[in-house]
Design goal:
Length: 223
């Protein structure tokens, strides 16, 4: 599919442990075009902001920003890529972490990736790291790119399905075709913050959401 990789895209993504039926529907509509694997590290701030996606991939620090909600979809904009070494202040700005890294280290120091990991691991900073191994099965559905992902998050297995395009109507059409209308749209920052226990699950105290029962969290239907 021809798409500018840096253009803002509308995304719909779900996470779960029993997404096999949705995967089968995806495979019935289009063949798998590619299988890729990667190891990525996501960084979450003291109060995980689900409007920013911060990760280290292919040796670079990357940022995407959530710029719009539209009919249940999220529109994400690539917002920067930094080579290592980086300064603590740069990472503080990316994470909006209130300057905790700059106070914990020389603000003008240059941090390698391993230096950054050692800082993030300090409990007093209340920063968080999720190491994610991804095996992605990629598909082209209508005007969208789609994928079924097998993930290991700090060693724990989970699955994900995503549909994305610069055209929101195309995403909504594929979402309906795959029967994903009743699923909760979750970004990586939100899902990882729940998996790590930083953000309460829907229905838990402090979540601000009601328990499931037509509301979130929506779970795959048994078929």
């Amino acid at each position: 599919m021809n798409m500018n990789a840096t253009a803002p895209r509308f995304e719909f993504r779900i996470f779960g442990t029993s997404l096999g039926m949705a995967e089968q529907r995806m495979r019935a509509f289009a063949p798998c075009e590619a299988i890729t694997e990667s190891r990525e590290v996501y960084l979450l701030g003291r109060r995980p902001a689900c409007d920013r996606n911060v990760k280290i991939r292919h040796g670079k620090l990357e940022l995407k920003r959530l710029i719009e909600h539209h009919r249940g979809l999220q529109r994400w904009q690539p917002a920067g890529q930094w080579d290592f070494p980086v300064t603590p202040g740069t990472v503080d700005d990316i994470l909006e972490s209130g300057g905790v890294l700059s106070r914990a280290a020389d603000p003008d120091a240059l941090l390698s990736r391993d230096d950054l990991f050692r800082l993030v691991a300090q409990p007093a900073l209340h920063l968080h790291r999720a190491s994610v191994h991804k095996r992605r099965f990629r598909f082209a559905l209508a005007a969208c790119s789609a994928e079924f992902d097998e993930l290991l998050v700090n060693g724990a297995a989970i699955e994900s399905i995503a549909v994305e395009s610069v055209d929101p109507e195309a995403v909504l059409e594929v979402q309906a075709t795959l029967r994903l209308d009743d699923f909760e749209n979750q970004s990586y920052p939100l899902a990882l913050s729940r998996i790590l226990g930083i953000t309460p699950l829907p229905g838990e105290a402090g979540s601000g959401q009601e328990p499931a029962g037509g509301a979130t969290p929506r779970r795959p239907p048994r078929e």
